[in-house]
Write a structure and sequence with these properties.
Blueprint: H1 3-14, E1 25-31, H2 39-52, E2 56-61, H3 68-75, E3 82-87, H4 94-97, E4 102-109, E5 115-117, E6 124-127, E7 140-145, E8 158-160, E9 164-166, E10 179-184, E11 195-197, E12 200-217, H5 220-230, H6 235-256, H7 258-262, H8 264-270, E13 274-278, E14 283-287
Parallel strand pairs: 1-3
Antiparallel strand pairs: 1-10, 2-7, 3-12, 4-5, 4-6, 4-12, 7-12, 8-11, 9-10, 13-14
Length: 288
């Protein structure tokens, strides 16, 4: 299913859904072509990632949420904040369709600023773009938990952008805001609706929102492995493929950073790794 078909399907099933299905506070992210990959391909691999993580997956985003996600979870009942995913209405930028470079992100910064490796079943990519100081532009991720297949359109409501305000400032969302924590309230304004049918929902999990770390350029062999992983047909193929890609990316990063070999013991003390521990009732992050 391509992006146009997804929009049509979502519009068809959400025509009679009222705003009552949209929570008063949520994280809203618009999705489309990214890092040279179409939305249907992204959803396909993210569904494999979700299944491999027993419901847990990461969704890369290009802008920071600041402390809004943390504040929203403190305010929300049970500290649960939903993430609502909607297809973008505008056409994808050329830089997203045909990026000059694609980055694979290996880790993220925890609440103390310590770099932590992402769980091995997660694969987050972005187009490579330089910041003002010459380094890679920051990229972020939503850590999510979802129990439904994200590739199947469902009757999940529609967001009217006129009713969404930034969580902290209460200002209207900017045209360039792709992801934001919002407050949502139906109004009696006579403005024409700006409907965004919801493709799927999830909940923020763990830290919820993180700044990513340790980008590696996917070139030559790494890019070939990446494409093979994206063609995985089963969860087992996905798990094995992402683990192999991540290890090769770590090797490539180490080869380009000889000083890390020299001070590897020091870096090891400062860097934590995380693994998923499965309990009978829920899945939690455990530090090892």
């Amino acid at each position: 299913m391509n992006l146009s078909d997804l929009r049509l399907a979502l519009n068809a099933i959400s025509l009679e859904v009222t705003h009552e299905g949209i929570p008063p506070v949520f994280c809203w992210t618009k999705m489309g072509t990214e890092a040279g990959q179409s939305l249907d391909m992204i959803l396909r691999r993210k569904e494999l990632e979700r299944r491999a993580g027993q419901g847990l997956f990461a969704w890369g985003i290009g802008n920071s949420l600041g402390v809004a996600a943390t504040l929203a979870r403190q305010e929300a009942l049970g500290n649960e904040v939903e993430v609502l995913f909607t297809p973008m209405r505008s056409a994808a930028k050329h830089a997203d369709v045909s990026p000059t470079q694609v980055l694979l992100w290996l880790g993220y910064h925890d609440e103390n600023g310590v770099e932590v490796r992402l769980p091995s079943h997660m694969m987050i990519t972005s187009r490579g773009s330089r910041g003002q100081k010459g380094g890679w532009r920051s990229h972020y991720a939503l850590l999510c938990e979802g129990r439904r297949d994200i590739t199947i359109p469902a009757n999940l409501g529609a967001i009217d952008a006129n009713n969404a305000k930034n969580f902290a400032s209460l200002n209207p969302l900017g045209a360039s805001q792709v992801t934001a924590v919002v407050r949502y309230k139906s109004t009696c304004d006579e403005l024409p609706e700006r409907r965004y049918p919801v493709a799927f929902r999830a909940k923020l999990h763990g830290l919820g929102f993180v700044r990513l770390a340790s980008p590696v350029v996917l070139d030559s062999d790494l890019l070939s492995i990446y494409h093979q992983v994206c063609r995985s047909e089963t969860v087992q193929e996905w798990i094995e493929g992402t683990s192999y890609l991540r290890q090769k990316a770590e090797d490539a990063k180490a080869q380009k950073s000889p000083q890390k070999k020299l001070f590897g013991e020091i870096l090891t003390r400062k860097t934590r790794t995380e693994e998923y521990v499965i309990s009978s009732k829920r899945q939690i992050l455990a530090t090892v």
